[in-house]
Write the structure tokens for this entry.
Amino acid sequence: MITAKIKVVLVCAAVLLTAAEAGAVGVPKKIKIALWTNSKTNNDKLMFLARPGEKIKFSMKTSSQGQYRWRVNRSIRKKADGSSFTWTVPAKKGVWNITAGIAGAEGRGEVTWSVTTSAIKTVKPGKSIQKAIDSLPAEGGIVELLGGTWELTAPIKIVKRGNITIRGTGIGKTHLRTDRKMVMIQITPFEDNAWVLDETRGGRAVQRLGRDPAMKADYIENITLADFHLKSDGVPVAKPVFQRGGILLAKVSNSRIFNVC
């Protein structure tokens, strides 16, 4: 779980990843996840729209048997310990991550499906990610980034809203780049202009006084960032926070970042 008041995440690190939760003692280390599928799309698609009340079966195949663990968002399903799991979509608008883990797996140890009953916005390279986020309904949804490269000239912002997933097709396929000295993704419950990066304080995010009642805003819930590569290059920088771009989190909880480098 992410619970952050003010935090700048340096990507290409193990912070905020939850794959270790799938680990256990005494299971062979050479287990590999061979394939995965779901009964909604009948293929290996990891993002899709579902109907409230719909039953969906998620399955994965591994090179050998092991100890399986299934989660819906942060909730471990204790009675689900096989290679498949049937889930009933809640009768409301929202976004959920269904994660299958195998203890002792080599390489990729988890598979996560992102499911929404709200909306999915698919964004092609060169098109605006920000416009896709802003076009999601109040209940949130999924922004699916196809393979390719985006050149960012301004931060991607999620402000005063939750239940949003931004997900690419993989670290080696979906790339977000900038040649500017800036945090690339900002997630805060404050107004757009409420945060600045203060070079005199080590590049940390600090509040611009007088704009918002400090820390009184509600936490943002249920944000997922996954399966893309961030890169900031071409700019000499003075502070480590900018060396690889980054993600600014302010008052964010019950959220997840994985496969982001």
